[in-house]
Model the fold of this input.
Amino acid sequence: MSYLSHFNLQEQPFRLTPDPDFLYWSKQHARAKAYMESTIWLADGFVVITGEIGSGKTTLLQSFLSELGDDVVYAVVSQTQLTPTQFLQAVLTEFGFKPFNKRKVELLDMLNMFLIEQYSSGKKVVLIVDEAQNLTHKVLEEIRLISGIETHKEKVLRIILAGQPELRDTLDTHGLKQLVQRVRLRFHLGPLDRREMQEYVEHRLKVAGAIGQLFESDTFDTIHRYSGGVPRLINTLCDTALLCAFADERHSVNFDDIMSAIAELNWEEHESNTGIYNKLQKIQQQDEESSDVTGIQVRTDGEILEELTFPPGRIIVGRSSDNEIFIKSKFVSRHHAQLVSDDDGCLIEDLNSTNGVFIGEKQVKKYRLQDGDTVSLGVHELVYHDLRRPEEAIEDQLHQASEEMRDESFDESDEDEFDDAVEEDETDDQDSVVNEQ
Done:
């Protein structure tokens, strides 16, 4: 005899697979659903929903999708560890195309034509991206661009991004400022409080066919303490507790069954109740903040267009859209320059551009940037900011100062030899860049 018949249940009340029939409408879940629905009646609807693992995001999305009318066409992309081209292919596949072996420009044209056709037919198109915390900055930028597809009257694509809290942190970085400006509504699904958690458990039991109270009143404080109010963890603990009660031939779940389930699962109190969670969040935030070493402010005619930050590595600047710093301008070459940042600072190098790279009035081929330096590319400017820890920057400045003092001690013949060596190095660097291209 299964525990379903033992407890007079018609189906499992605490399955981990998302099921809209079991969705409990807490205030925050109802609000998140309302935000999703707003994408339908707002032509420029763009909503971001975040929440911890197991907070009910996917179930919420399924409930939303199940209620869409025939005038709505939608695509759901859940595999998000993709390149920009692969992402566009995934979107078009969900809309019924076979977009493989196509160039990116062809994919964009297919999507643009599809959206205009649907608009002309009176259809509303919604793109839903689940697990969006895995999207790279380049894919998020692609989403920003396609969100701007429009007719002469209004935009034709509505977007919902759903993901774990990392998505919220990603969107708050400087490099995605333009994308964030497109977002109409943002909402974070937090854990259920003690009262909501009890209502959640009782709601699922009722939907499953339970008669009377299966969980004794003294069990809920412990369930909340060990689950932290996270729906998926509540399901796991309650299902295990039902099995423990069933094994002991009890027809209700008491405190001992909850503790037996906790022992079986080898759980400790949830981190949100011990204070560890907040500490871990702060540590993680500090680590994330300290990972970027280079800050770039992009300006045109004195107006700030973007503020970007980058970890150590190579950053390509140019008018090609796949560059880390994309500047759409006739004054900028496709691959104009590169910034190479490491623990010692940042070096800018001209990649055989048409109009050159200037620091002030001086054209440079390779130059070690200092905090606050302004790099001119035609009518555009890049302002460099050193984001390394203060002690690292100071140490680097002291090292440079000592190098300058040593250079001043050169006699004239030494200085000539040094200039010749620099010219040879620049020639070698120029040759290597041409070979790379």
